[in-house]
Amino acid sequence: MYWSGMMAPKNRIFTGLGPSLEGETQHPYLIIRNTDRENCFASMFYTTHVENEQTFRMEQVHIDQQGVYALAVIHPNGITDYWVYAQTEGELTIPLKHGIWHVKGRVAMIRIDAQGSCLTSACIDARQMTYRETTLEGFQKKNMPVISVDMSQQTIEIEGDLPKTNQRYLKVVSNNYPNGSLYPIETIHETGKLLKVQLTDSLILSKGIVVAYDDQYLTTSYPLPLGWDKGQTISSFTGKLINGAVGGKALIKNVIGLKKIQISLIKPFRKGENFSIIDIQKGDNIQWV
Question: What is the pLDDT along the chain (289 residues), one digit of tens a residue?
C-alpha cells in the first residue's frame, strides 16, 4: 500500500502506535500537525502487486485565488485526475496543461487523458463546470429531512426522492452546525414513503464516559482531540448529539477543554454512563452529491 499527501510546507508528520479509546488495543496512527490558521490536506491511498513499484503521483496545481486548492493525481498511462476545493462557494479558474477549467461552486473533479480530452467529470459540490467545449451541470440541491437514525446499522431514513443517477455520496446539512459532513453511500432502499440509506462510514464521531455533569457542562473521562483545539472559539462538534447508553441526551454547544463539553441538556445522564457523539440526527437534512 502506498500513501501520498499534500500539505502545507510547515506541516509535521507523526507515526506510531496509540491506544483505542477503551485502552484495550493499539492502532497505527498517521498524524498531520499544522499550526497555521488556514489548513489544506489531501490524501491518496492505493495498492499494487508486491513486485510493482509506486505508479501514481500527486502534485499540487497552483491557483492564484485565496482559499482555493487544486491537485493532480497522475496515472502511469498518462491520464490525470484534477481535483479542486474552495473554502467558500464562488467562480474558480484552474489552469490545466491543455486548457482552462472553470468551476462554479466549491468542489469538483475532472479526468483528462494525455491528449487533453475530458474522459469524465463530477460536480461534487458545484453548480456547473466548463472545460474546452464540455459543460457539465451540477445537481440541483434539494434538502431532504432525516426521519430516523440507526447507529448500529449505520443507516438513516429520509423523506425524499430516489436520485436520478447512481449516487455515491450524500452531504449532511443542518442549522445546528456550520460544516456538513460528506458520507459514502453503501445502499439505498425504498421503504414505503421513505428512503433507507446505509452509509459506509460510522456515524459516531467520538465516545466517552460521564464523570460529572449539570445542565450546562459535562466532563468525560476520554479526551476529545477531534473536537477541541487550544485557541479555537467554535468546536467542530458544536450542534452534535451526545447519546448516552442508558438514555442520557444533550446537544453540544461547544467543547471548551480536552475533556469538558458545554451542553444543552435534553435528558439526564448517569455518572459513569457511556456515550457516543453522533454526527447525524433526526431533523438534519441531506443532499445527494
Answer: 777 877 777 788 888 988 776 677 888 888 888 777 666 778 888 777 767 676 888 888 988 888 888 999 999 888 999 999 988 889 999 999 899 999 999 899 999 999 999 999 888 888 899 998 888 887 677 889 999 999 889 999 999 888 877 778 888 988 777 667 889 999 999 988 899 999 998 899 999 999 999 999 999 998 998 888 777 788 889 999 999 999 999 999 999 999 999 999 999 999 999 999 999 999 999 988 7
- Burial tier of 30 (Cβ tally within 10 Å: 0-12, 13-18, 19+): exposed
Amino acid identity at 54: Q
Helix (H) or strand (E) holding 236: none
Q: Which grid coordinates are listed for 152? A: 448500529
> Which stretch of DSSP H or E encloses residue 113?
none
Q: Decide if 144 contacts 287 (C-beta within 8 A).
A: yes
> In angstroms, rounded to a whole number, what is the distance separating the alpha carbons of residues 123 and 103?
8
The model's pTM is: 0.69
3-state helix, strand, coil in the chain (%, to 5): 0, 55, 45
- Grid cell listed for 102: 472553470
Gap between the Cα atoms of 7 and 152, Å rounded: 35
Integer Cα distance of 97 and 78 in angstroms: 12
Q: Which residues pair with 194 in a beta bridge?
A: 191
Q: How far is CA 283 from the centre of its chain?
A: 19
3-class DSSP state of 68: strand
